[in-house]
Amino acid sequence: MGYTRWILCFSLLLSLPVLGAGTPDVQQAKQAELENLRQKISNLQQDLEKTSASKSEAADALRESERAISKNKRSLSELATQQRSAIFSQQNLQQQSRHLERDLQEQQEMLGQLLYQQYLAGEQQELVKLLFNDPNQTMRNLKYYQYVVRSRALWLNSMRKNLQHINQVTAEQRQKSLEIISLHSEEQMQKRELEKERLARQQVIKQYAQQLKQQHREINRLQQNEARLAQLLKRLAELLASQQSDSHATTESFEQHPDFEKLKGRLSLPVNGIVTNKFGDMRPDSTLQWKGLQLRARSGQMVKAIAAGRVVFADWLRGFGNLLIIDHDNGYMSLYANNETLYKQVGDALQSGNTIAAVGNSGGNEDFGLYFELRHKGKPLDPMEWIHPMKQSAH
Fold first, then answer.
1. pLDDT at 9
2. Could you tell me the sign of the dihedral formed by the alpha carbons of 101, 102, 106, 107, in that order?
3. Rounded to whole angstroms, how far apart are CA atoms 372 and 4?
4. What is the pLDDT of residue 6?
5. Which superfamily, per CATH, for 219-391?
6. Quick check: 3 and 147 in contact, CB under 8 A?
7. Is 268 helix (H, G, I), strand (E, B) or coil?
8. In degrees to the nearest 10, what's the CA dihedral of 212, 217, 218, 223?
9. How far apart are CA 38 and CA 43, in angstroms?
10. Rounded to two decimals, what is the model's pTM?
11. Residue 158 burial (CB count, 10 A)
């Protein structure tokens, strides 16, 4: 076996990727700022609940169970993502282990052939013979002999490192297996909790069924719900403005999206559904108008963000159930209500088309669907003017 082949193989086997160092201080600062924002919005929500009248309303009785259902479903989704990641990592480790074992076997074979050739030639005899050769040939032979000896040392060192790497990969594989088992156990627990909360919600709906129907048609309560939402949006805008002026975060911490107004007439509906109520239509049995779209859709169907932005509210609100609000900058916000599950949390950055929620009927609604609004500086906009004409109907 040629010396050149040994060196090439050895160089390839020692080529391992190097991970770049992180920036923990920057990450900690971003996380601290995010937690501060979430705490302020949580306090805002608590203030709204404290000032709300008629605490015994049927819709409020649904609040805790619908919040819990959303939280459990989000946890299950996160666990599923973690499981997929752990399984993928485990598969990569298994593949890496196989490659390392194959490389080690090749190293052993090459080293064995090297030692065998040196044994046949006889190292000590080779040194004696070199002394009686032509001086120039002797120098060349000595140089070659040094390469051979050095190569053997390198092979031995490489094999030792390879064995250590195999032991490390094997340990990581065992750790991933334990992690997958733990995630599966937690997933089963979350499923049991989810079923428990669903049963609790069914009992509340059964108990308050008549009252819920009546509340959906009472003008006074509808007006209170709309006023509550308007107040929430106003205070959110004030909070965000204050947060930006006081923030010392980097520009990547909260990305700006200044071109939302240019998307008018180019957006897609947040869910593939049937538009049952349009902007400006009269609400049933009332003199109030719809300020958004009511989209009938399947339970559990994925709700998508209409454009890039940042989640500024993700919680239960009376009259709107599990509500998620996205800030698109320059005063533009989109609202997604009556969801079963909110997959995103306050502070999460979004791109257009990201899954943010799952269709439900939270807030005491009889039918499954999504209530969707667009606002600019608190003023409701007609969503249909922003949706592309080819995307205004269900697919």
1. 43
2. negative
3. 69
4. 40
5. Glucose Permease (Domain IIA) (2.70.70.10)
6. yes
7. coil
8. 100
9. 9
10. 0.66
11. 18
User: What's the rounded Cα separation, in Å, for the pair 350 and 308?
Assistant: 5
Q: pLDDT per residue over 121-149, tens digit each?
A: 555 455 555 555 555 655 555 555 555 55
Percent of the chain with pLDDT over 70: 64
DSSP 8-state code for residue 329: S
**Residue extents of the structural domains in the chain:** 57-214, 219-391
- The arithmetic mean of pLDDT across residues 290-300, rounded, is 93
Predicted confidence band at 240 (pLDDT cuts at 50, 70, 90)? confident
Least confident of 117-121, 205-209, 282-286: 117-121
Q: Which helix (H) or strand (E) holds 240?
A: helix 219-246
Are 197 and 118 in contact by the 8 Å Cβ rule? The answer is no
Among 393, 368, 381, CA closest to 331:
381
329: left (phi > 0), else alpha (psi -120 to 50), else beta? left
For residues 289 and 157, what is the distance between their CA atoms, to the nearest angstrom? 78
Locate 311 and state its tokens: 């989640």
Tell me how far apart the alpha carbons of residues 332 and 327 are, in angstroms, rounded to a whole number. 6
Which residues are CB-contacts of 213 (< 8 A; sequence separation ≥ 6)?
366
Q: Across the strands, what pairs with 36?
A: none
- pLDDT value for 15: 41
- Res 191: pLDDT: 77
Cα four-point dihedral sign 370, 371, 376, 377: negative
Tokens 């957006």 label which residue?
Answer: 267
Return d(Cα 277, Cα 388) in angstroms, integer: 18
Neighbours of 280 (CB within 10 A): 11
Contacts of 323 (CB under 8 A, 6+ apart): 313, 314, 315, 316, 317, 335, 336, 337, 339
Q: Which of 308, 311, 362 is nearest to 67 (CA)?
A: 362
pLDDT tens digits for range 71-83: 888 888 887 887 7
The amino acid present at 95, given as its one-letter code, is: Q
CB-based contact 322:342 (threshold 8 Å): yes
What single DSSP character describes residue 281? P
> Residues 66, 322: contact at Cβ < 8 Å?
yes
**Domain 57-214 listed as CATH 1.10.287:** yes
The SS3 assignment for 304 reads: strand
